[in-house]
Hints:
The structure is a single chain. This protein has 6 helices and 6 strands. It is of the alpha+beta class and 194 residues long. The protein has one domain (1-150). Strand 5 and strand 6 (188-192) form a beta hairpin. The two termini are 23 Å apart. Residues 17-21 have low confidence and may be disordered.
Amino acid sequence: MYANDHKDRFPGDVPGPAGLDDIVFGNSGYRRGAGNIGTENNGAYSNFVPSTLPEIYGLPAIYAQLKYIPAGSMVWVCPAQLEWMKANKNTYSVDTSDNVARSTSQDRQGRSNRFNWNSATRPYVQDNISQYAYTTGVIKILASPTYVITASQRQFLYPHRVSGKLAVNILYLDGHVGYGISGGGPTYLTIPIR
């Protein structure tokens, strides 16, 4: 939907002629759900900063603003995820890299070699296992304290099990979905969802 309405581009934090109007993710791949106000420290995060502002950044917020998916929709919440993350009204993280925002359908379907990645193996949206939500309604300052979940904590966040192994749901850049099986590193063994 978004790409159809925005010249074949995905959302991203790529400043353009409109400046901050083009900032969609607020420099963070994991944000709370649209309109959620970050007064609760979900996840007992040590650098938590409470906010009285509603969340306006992130994929759930931009889709709500554009009336693709209503604010508060449970489509953004994996029922298998931990309760503290479900309370954020979003349990998915997004690849916010500039190349993804600049890519076109030709790139995402593997018909171009402009970018050094394979869209069939590059996650775009997946179960969040790596970040705490940033302060709602505020653009993340790149020098701010880290919001990364440590590897020792991460093992408890994989919401799925596939063949007895820890797994996440993944929407890949080319549009197919699959499970990412934990391999102990940053890459996943992909198993298509049937």
